[in-house]
Amino acid sequence: MYDKNGSPTVNLATTDASLTLGSGGVNGKVSVRGKEGTALVELLATDTEAVIGAGNKNRAGRLTMYNKQGSPTVNLTTADATLTLGGNATNGKVSVQGKDGMPIVELIASDTESVIGLGQSNRPGRITVYNGNQDASIELNGAQGDIWISNADFAEEFDVATCTDAVLPVERGMVMVLGAGGDVQPSASAYDSRVVGVVSGAGTYRPGLVLDRRDTGNERLPIALVGKVFCLVDATNTPIQIGDLLTTADQAGHAMKATDRQAAFGAVLGKALAPLETGCALLPILVTLQ
Asked: Which H helix or E strand runs over 263?
């Protein structure tokens, strides 16, 4: 069939069982419409793009492909923006290959395991997670075998004691000690060997890794066991210098400089990372329980 200029624009050929739409200066188009005339499925060849369109307002598009047994194994649905591979006795697999045909990224669901694979020979895998400012905050580097986290400390969650003699409510930066039931409460006496760490998250430091995060029905807080945190310290009686060993103070939830080495045995919380001449303040410290 020809257009008004005599150019063939629709060609149905039985020799190769082909249907060709377009050419001769005319773009090709297939449109399948609903009974009200709205296009629901379209194949378009324009000057700038090739389009396969399915669906319309109130009628979500779906592409389903079947295996040789007639079971759907690939399903792309716009209603919930899902791509499902596998099912009906068929394992799902996504493979992203390099130009040499080797798989670089794979998602595999087999009968025995679930696999996320990254990298290939001479092309190590890497996973980078970014924060809201598009700065890398977590990275798993296959080439170096490293896990890199931008935050500062290693923490573990503990239940907070419901009954405590502490004057202050529990807050970030407080020094915590173990209670009778394995829970924690603010320290309240000097050189307390029950010291376990500092409530993480004060100042500009945030926990880099938090273990045992679960719901116990009680208030739980991350306690920094290793690493850099901001901690409440008391230098009222003794100035604190960088590198000084710190222990629990009589001031609730505070640390102080350890001056009695014998009493400090087993009660050292960490080391000061900044000086404080007098008074109480929030100070960066390195938690190194001893």
From this structure: helix 261-264
Contact indicator for 211, 155 with CB cutoff of 8 Å: yes
Q: Residue 76's beta-bridge partner residues?
A: 63, 83
Which residues, other chains included, contact 177 with Cβ-Cβ below 8 Å and sequence gap of 6+?
184, 185, 186, 187, 188, 192, 194, 195, 196, 248
Please give the Cα distance from 109 to 71 (Å, whole number). 18
Which architecture, in CATH terms, is 153-288? Beta Barrel (2.40)
pLDDT at 164: 52
Q: pLDDT tens across 72-102, in order?
A: 999 999 999 999 999 888 899 999 999 989 9
Distance from C-alpha of 85 to C-alpha of 44, rounded to nearest angstrom: 26
Domain boundaries, the chain: 10-59, 66-120, 153-288
